[in-house]
Structures are given as C-alpha cells and as structure tokens.
Write a structure and sequence with these properties.
Low-confidence stretches: 1-31, 330-358
Order of helices and strands: EEEEEEEEEEEEEEEEEEEEEEEEE
Strand content: 35-45%
Radius of gyration: 20 Å
CATH topology of the largest domain: Immunoglobulin-like
Structural class: mainly beta
CATH class of the largest domain: Mainly Beta
Shape: globular
CATH architecture of the largest domain: Sandwich
Largest sheet: 12 strands, mixed
Number of helices: 0
C-alpha cells in the first residue's frame, strides 16, 4: 500500500463524538444520491492477535474531511462480561485511503465503558472515497484475555460520524454494523464468497472476502456458480487498497472462475475485505424471489503466506438473491446505488498458466 499519511493533524472544527448533530450534519431526508452507506466490516481475530476494523463505502462519494466514530461492545442481548485486566482493543495504527495520498489523520480514544473510538481525517484534494470500497482501516491488538468464541458488535455512532465533500457540504451516512468474532489460535483462516441481491438481467456484484490482516504472497481462488443464472464473461478486479498484487483469471469451464494471484512483497490482505471482486450478468430467465449458490471450490483454492507455506483455510459460501424490480433498484439494504465507479482498481481480462502451490 502506498502513501496514506499517518501523521496527526490540527483537526478542522468537527463536533466531538456523541454530541448532538449540528446544522452541517445531514438529516434522514437527504436525497438518496447523496447517501453514503458505510459498513463496519466483520472482523476476526485471536486472543492477543492483530485485528483490522475496516470501514467500507458502498458508493463513490469524494470526501474532503470527516470523522468516523465507533465502538466494540457485547451484543445487546448478552449480559455484560466480567471485567478483564486489559482492554478489549489496544490501538495500533490507522490508514485513511485517498487517491492523492494526502490524508492527515488523528485517532482518539474516549475514556468510556466501553471505549469509543474516533478516527478524524482531512484530505486537501478531497479524494477520500473517490472510488467505492475500503475507506479506512484501524488496526488493534485484541486483548489476550478475551475468550475464543466471543462475539462483539462493531457499531458506528451515527451522531459522531460525519463526512463532508470538498465544499464542506455534509454527506448523509447510512451506518451498517459489523461483528468481531474471536477464534481459537488453532482454527483456520476464514475466506468466503460474498454475494447480494440483484434484479434478473442486471449485473451482479460478487466478491471473495477475508476477515483478518494475514499477509498473502500467492494463491488461487476457484469460484463456482450456476452458469444458467450468472452468464457471460466476468469483469474481475483486485483493489490495491488491500495490498499490492498481480492477477489473471480463467473462465474456460462454464460456472467456474479461477483467479491466480501473486504478491511478491507479501502486502496482499494486509487490509482484509473483498480482495477479489467480479461482476456477472444475471439471466433474464432467472426466477424472481429465487436464490443461486456461489461457493469456493476447496480443490482449487489455496493461499500461501510470505514464507511460501500454505495457510489453513475455512471456506464459506453465499447465495445471489434474485429480486423483483422495485422503484430505485434493489438497494443495500434499503437504498439504491446509482454509481459504482471502479476506475481505481486494476482489471485483468485474460488468463495465464496457473502457478503451482509451494
């Protein structure tokens, strides 16, 4: 990853997390085209290990400055845990991505129970979130005292999270929560297919995603799907915000996408999330209100760490939901996305011979 600044800034007058919204904040009646769905992605970690809290935007809305306010806490239905000698999360570092690489950031932890975190940033070029995808990531060390199997909610503070365009005009944020799951150190690393909803005849946006910042040096992903539902040749992307990589793909077998990739510097998956994104057109003959499975083939999927050794993987599947046309499109979860500018990602269109696992 190149160039995101990590220095502190003299932060431009933004309201503190938890304060009431000011006139610059955006109300729920803002036009849908100005809404920014912001998702705290699901994260996984081991006790005492490094985790990444990734904030993903589902629409392209260039941002000049803002702050993201969030908290990690037990699910509301669970009783409060017994206090531990160390905090759940100990701050490590932050990155906010911009096209110009000119972001200045500041990270603050509010002394509350549970602690509330603020990530503040300014981009003079207003190129944060120029392209949809990872907007920012905060790295923590997970407490060594937390029990494997524990889960925590990752929640955005809706009043404390504010973003503004290059003219200082606020952009309404649609907060989407995530989960932090604590796994046992002996468990494999989760890699999963990621699908969603689509109207038949339109483009389905799919992905292969990860949940932990574990470096990858090379690998192969084999994705299977129903070619009678998802048609044609896919457009495949790997976003450099997840780490440097080269890749090629093959679709010689109907219903099978094979992606081979290499990251010589081992930075791939330094920021987890949707490492491989691909688009396929859905058949006009697909039945509305139906689902179609998308899964990773274990015989064709492998990943090597920086030392060349294969990593143990736990593969997850998903389904594409075919939905009837509705006014404004299917949306996620309730609003349409009118723009999906992916020009910032490298695109591969042809295949090369696959590498041999080391």
């Amino acid at each position: 990853m190149k160039g995101p600044a990590r220095s502190l800034l003299r932060f431009l007058a933004l309201a503190a997390c938890g304060l009431a919204s000011t006139a610059a904040a955006i109300s729920g009646v803002a036009p849908a085209d100005n809404v920014l769905p912001l998702h705290v992605e699901d994260a996984v970690g081991v006790p005492g290990g490094r985790i990444a809290v990734v904030f993903r935007a589902y629409a392209s809305r260039p941002i000049g400055q803002g702050q993201v306010c969030f908290v990690a806490q037990p699910p509301a239905e669970e009783p409060p845990p017994t206090p531990t000698p160390s905090p759940l999360l100990s701050y490590s570092e932050s990155i906010v991505f911009s096209q110009a690489g000119d972001v200045e950031i500041e990270f603050i932890e509010v002394d509350e129970q549970p602690p509330t975190f603020e990530l503040r940033f300014v981009s003079p070029s207003a190129t944060v979130n120029r392209y949809d995808g990872p907007l920012a990531v905060v790295f923590f060390q997970l407490s060594p005292d937390v029990a494997p199997g524990s889960q925590f909610d990752l929640l955005l503070d809706v009043d404390g999270t504010k973003v503004f365009d290059e003219d200082g005009v606020g952009i309404e944020v649609l907060p989407l929560p995530g989960k932090l799951t604590v796994r046992d150190a002996g468990d494999p690393f989760a890699v999963a297919a990621d699908a969603g909803r689509v109207v038949r005849g339109e483009v389905a946006h799919l992905a292969v995603r990860t949940f932990e910042p574990v470096p990858w040096s090379a690998g192969r992903i084999g994705v299977r799907y129903d070619p009678e539902v998802l048609e044609g040749e896919p457009v495949v992307r790997m976003d450099p915000r997840h780490g440097a990589a080269t890749f090629d793909y093959e679709v010689s077998v109907p219903g099978l996408l094979i992606v081979d990739f290499s990251s010589p510097d081992g930075t791939l998956n330094g920021v987890p999330g949707q490492l491989v994104r691909f688009e396929l057109t859905t058949s006009r003959a697909a039945l509305p209100t139906s689902t179609s499975r998308v899964w990773l083939d274990p015989s064709l999927t492998w990943v090597a760490g920086p030392d060349g050794r294969l990593l143990p993987l736990a593969l997850g599947d998903d389904v594409v939901e075919i939905v009837p046309p509705v006014e404004g499109g299917p949306g996620f979860p309730e609003r349409p996305f009118t723009r999906r500018d992916a020009a910032g990602a490298r695109i591969a269109r042809r295949s090369l011979p696959a590498p041999t696992p080391r």
